[in-house]
Specification:
It contains seven helices and seven strands; from the N terminus they run αβααβαβαββββαα. The chain is α/β, with parallel strands linked by helices. A seven-stranded mixed beta sheet has the order 4-3-2-1-5-6-7. The relative contact order is 0.15.
Length: 181
């Protein structure tokens, strides 16, 4: 029987402590790689999740709370919102990348998928166990800590609300609550 490494033990225990496993990708991951175009007739996030990264990484089967880690320009390509929707449906806690394509970034905010822009994302390896608190990423596998750039306040509020629709609902409810007497 093979002896377990510290990283393997941490990965097995991650769900008990709310830790995240990293699924690592490279630079210029386009939306076709995230969700192939033939699945764009699907709008259910859970169904889309079954096909996420199907063409480039068939072993992609994240657990709820895992994270996707990538290099530069994550989410480039077409403007489809199905890509962040598939990741959210797969239970991805957030995407950590060195940089994001503009439209992917906007679509992710709109559906409430958290993103962290971190210049040190390349220090994170596939399978590393991470603990994320705010903009701080602790790599428990390597014993390192990285700081991500914070989202502007109003964008962070939209993501924390679960997306633009939930954010708008909360604003309308708050406005109407003030009018009731």
């Amino acid at each position: 029987m093979a002896r377990k490494t510290k990283a393997t033990e941490m990965a097995e225990a991650k769900h008990a402590g709310g830790l995240s496993r990293a699924w690592k990708f490279g630079d210029d991951v386009d939306t076709d790689a995230i969700i192939p175009g033939r699945f764009l007739t699907i709008n259910d996030p859970k169904e889309l999740a079954k096909h996420a990264f199907e063409g480039v990484r068939p072993d992609f089967r994240p657990s709820t709370g895992d994270v996707v880690v990538a290099g530069e320009n994550f989410g480039c390509g077409s403007s489809r919102e199905h890509a962040p929707l598939a990741l959210k449906g797969a239970g991805i806690k957030c995407v950590i990348a060195k940089s994001f394509a503009r439209i992917f970034f906007r679509n992710s905010i709109n559906i409430g998928l958290a993103m962290l822009e971190c210049r040190e994302a390349d220090r994170i390896a596939d399978g590393d166990v991470l603990e994320i608190e705010g903009n701080t990423i602790k790599n428990l596998t390597k014993g390192e800590t990285y700081e991500a750039a914070p989202l502007p306040g109003f964008l962070a509020e939209i993501v924390e609300s679960g997306g633009l629709i939930e954010y708008a609902r909360a604003m309308v409810a708050k406005k109407h609550k003030g009018k009731k007497k």
